[in-house]
Design goal:
six-stranded mixed beta sheet, 6 strands, 25% helix
Length: 120
């Protein structure tokens, strides 16, 4: 049995566009950290409030939170025989940014995650 050796927590905030002459994008608002505490907090929270399944993409099930304007997903992977990874994703959407494509955001994050895994 191996321990989780790599943790990735993605948080995406879809920004409000305050100045149309300087448009902003969720691509500029992706945070990545490696905190086990954040992962455990998210797993515990999401276990207690599993949300509504919205779609699945490349093995990631994306759910919409019933408690907040957010979508979430998590995945664990085993690779190179003795490494385990844990990845959590939280995407904040509100009324002002409801037209953002959660599927497009997840596709981007999953590609980024696979690139990071390929470097280990």
């Amino acid at each position: 049995m191996t321990a989780i050796s790599h943790v990735y927590n993605y948080t995406v905030r879809c920004p409000h566009i305050k100045d149309p002459s300087h448009p902003t994008s969720w691509l500029n608002h992706i945070e990545i950290n490696h905190s086990c505490e954040i992962s455990l907090d998210r797993i515990t929270k999401w276990h207690n409030h599993s949300g509504t399944r919205v779609f699945e993409y490349e093995g990631f099930t994306v759910r919409e939170s019933e408690q907040e304007g957010a979508y979430f997903s998590l995945q664990s992977d085993r690779f190179k025989e003795d490494f385990h990874t844990l990845v959590t994703v939280k995407i904040h959407i509100d009324k002002a940014t409801k037209n953002a494509s959660v599927q497009e955001i997840m596709q981007h994050i999953i590609r980024d995650y696979h690139v990071r895994l390929s470097k280990i």
